[in-house]
Specification:
cell division; Uridine Diphospho-n-acetylenolpyruvylglucosamine Reductase, domain 1; 3 domains; binds flavin-adenine dinucleotide; cell cycle; 6 helices; alpha+beta; 27% strand
Length: 343
């Protein structure tokens, strides 16, 4: 039988992941619409191929050889429709760059995702780990997610409340991991100003009642100062999640380390700053072989070139062991390995 035109073989993905890990995908498919996503899934099912969904590759750790089918949902388009009161419903295809979406919304005077400017990757991946930055998470504005399910080949729509969204977490990393391809999502944004300035240095960088564009520009400037550009120094952003510990563990730690940054959570637990823990172990700027901890941002691991996944995992395990030995706190990796599911 003739292979579908969309199917490519031996595609080099070394430049399609921001960590620049060397990777060849055995089979590769770019889908421009839901029908093409469904066709790719039928082919994968018929051949029993493992499936990898690839967005911008900014939160994914790729192996040297990626077996099965790698699918990129490139669905385009952003639409804006009036919602209730001053709200506007924004629908976006999975293939739209997240930052392009934020920019388009800011240009239209729509509030809600300006604090999430410059997060790399595509819109379709945003619900996977419920992207967040500067006190705002996708869950604050998400209305629904549409996806094609590998098990029945059908398109489904899941309300935001059913997506199990939490800190860097969602149903798509657990029960639905490796089962669905997100094709579209909808956000509820607002024409009414509601600046979110409570996190980090943001309030110091803007005027007393900042406008939407001012906040957007400040976020972009802060991020450009703090984070290495993956095009210049490959990285996957924060390599570890900020650990969330019980209130009693946090209290014990702050007795020993009064300057430890702590963020109380609504459930009574306390979020700690993983970057601070790593830095306090004296690891900032530490390099071993092809990988290192960024000299200005201890949470970011960088790839100097010539390394692979096994070396990166060994390096990150050594960091996590040092933090555990010093503080008794377990660090959990943020970027995902292919075919990984969280329990
Ligand atoms: C410099 C830098 C800064 C960053 N800053 C932040 C930050 O501030 N906040 C934050 O939350 N994250 C941040 N990240 C992480 C990353 O940008 C986000 O997680 C982003 O949403 C990943 O998008 P992506 O398209 O690159 O996904 P990928 O890395 O391609 O994929 C990530 C995961 O989602 C799955 N996936 C992707 N698309 C789909 C789809 N359509 N359907 C089903 N599954 C899919 C993949 O299989 C994989 O498991 C940063 C990363 C970098 C490199």
């Amino acid at each position: 039988m003739r292979e579908p035109d969309a199917l490519e073989h031996a595609r080099d993905l070394s430049h399609a992941n921001t960590m620049a890990l060397p990777c060849i995908a055995e089979r590769f498919w770019c889908a421009q619409d839901s029908a093409s996503v469904a066709a790719a899934l039928r082919l994968a099912n018929a051949n029993d191929w493992p499936l990898t969904v690839l967005g911008g590759g900014s939160n994914l750790l790729l192996p040297a050889r990626l077996a099965g089918l790698t699918l990129v949902p490139e669905l385009p388009d952003i639409t804006f429709a009036p919602g209730e009161g001053e709200s506007v419903v924004v629908e976006v295809g999975a293939g739209v760059s997240w930052h392009a979406l934020v920019t388009a919304c800011v240009e239209r005077g729509l509030w809600g995702i300006e604090n999430l400017a410059l997060i790399p990757g595509l819109a379709g991946a945003a619900p996977i780990q419920n992207i967040g930055a500067y006190g705002v998470e996708l869950s604050d504005v998400l209305l629904w997610v549409e996806f094609v399910d590998r098990r029945d080949g059908q398109c489904h729509r899941l309300a935001s409340t059913a997506c199990g969204l939490g800190y860097r977490d969602s149903i798509f990393k657990r029960e639905l991991a490796n089962q669905v391809v997100i094709t579209r999502l909808a956000l509820r944004l607002s024409r009414r100003a509601h600046p979110q300035l409570g996190y980090g240095v943001l309030a110091e960088r803007v005027s007393k009642s900042p406008g939407l564009e001012e906040i957007f520009s400040a976020i972009c400037a802060i991020r450009r100062e703090k984070l290495p550009d993956p095009r210049e120094l490959p990285n996957a952003g924060s390599f570890f999640k900020n650990p969330v510990v019980s209130a009693s563990s946090a209290a014990q730690l702050t007795q020993r380390y009064p300057e430890l940054p702590c963020y109380p959570q609504p459930d009574g637990r306390v979020k700690l700053a993983a970057g601070w823990l790593i830095e306090r172990c004296g690891l900032k700027g530490w390099r071993q072989g092809a990988f290192g901890i960024h000299a200005r941002q201890a949470l970011v691991l960088v790839h100097f070139g010539g390394g692979d996944l096994a070396e990166l995992l060994a390096f990150s395990a050594a960091i996590a062991e040092r933090v555990h030995a010093t503080f008794g706190v377990t660090l959990v990796r943020e970027p995902r390995q292919v075919h990984e599911a969280d329990s």
